[in-house]
Amino acid sequence: MIRKVLLRAALMALLAGAATASFAAPNSAKRVKSFAKLPDWGGYWIVDSIHETAGSLLDVPKVKLFGDIPYNPKWMADYNKRRGELRDKDVKACVIDFPATMESPQAFMLTVLPEQTIYIAGDGTFRQIFTDGRKHPPKDELFPTVNGHSIGRWEGETLVVDTIGRVAGPVRFLGAAAFSDQARFSERIRKTGKDRLEDVMTIDDPVALTHPWTVTFGYDRTTLIDRLDPYYCELDDRIDFDKNGKMIIKPPPN
Amino acid sequence: MKFRTAWVCAVALAAGAWTTGAWAHHSYAMFDRGKTVTLNGTVREYRWTNPHTWLQVTVPNDAGGTDEWSVEMGSPFELLRNGWTAKTIKAGDKVSVQIHPVKDGTKGGGFVSAMDADGRQLGGGK
Predict the structure, then answer these.
(1) Closest CA of chain B from A61, distance in Å
(2) Less packed terminus of chain B by CB within 10 Å, N or C?
(3) Cβ B23–A54 below 8 Å, yes or no?
(4) pLDDT reading at A13 higher than 60
(5) Could you tell me if A201 and A186 are in contact, meaning their C-beta atoms sit under 8 angstroms apart?
(6) Using the beta-carbon criterion (under 8 Å), do B73 and A56 form an inter-chain contact?
């Protein structure tokens, strides 16, 4: 009996020790010290290539992802076809994926932790950029997603990001560039001013592009908002379809 | 003259914009991009919401009554970039709103520009 109690106590002590170790890590001196090296990317950020509009539904000629994309002829033809559909047909998409999210009109926030940087946009899009030293999953475990798989490392206060494993096909956010599932996205994200952030992105896609394409996105830290207002596109969007697939405006909620 | 210039600029921007597509989550085929309608009315509601801000405007009609028009604007963040806030206009304000109307005659459209009762352009720049 005494032996059983002692064994149980030893087991409990072992489990408690393991739990303590895993929960103590977040407050370890090493981790606390690593926080001090991280840059201040707090607050809310808005991309600067949106402000040329009249604040309406109108196009944004200066949007980088509408730019001179070095597609090969096949992908350029597909791109032009989709852009034509956007102009002439009733189509809608609610998901904003990567890389389009980096130039979306939605504000976003960044939570910089030693192990990862978390990107959350107002439309609900999120990215995890792992900086804990992990590698990309092997090919048979890299199940492509709309955002791909991102790993990063710090070079001073610049976050260097490598993203692969993004699903092929059109970017769901309409009108922006599409890439194949072979695309690799290299980003260098850094502050360029007190309230300025920059993302220099080079896209290498041997299937879709004739050569790697570099675009630079700029962001301003805004004090115009104090929170992100999430929305559920299927419910909150008044642009909808009738039973015949024709686009309609739903009545206001009240 | 000032207002006229602003109006011409807005239309020119709109015309150029529509030719190249849009940064948006839905197409604009439902709107008549070649036509601009001016709504002179009263704001019933200004709904500052994602994914789009909506302006409900009550406009007198030929029958002596009123019609309510639904005007789709950009997302709040796009509007913030252009000088709009959730308080730029409020229910009861007299406004003049230019839209590209819905093709099928539905009382609605895509926002182009707006002026307040004093003829000042609303929003209008970063």
Answers:
(1) 7
(2) N
(3) no
(4) no
(5) yes
(6) yes
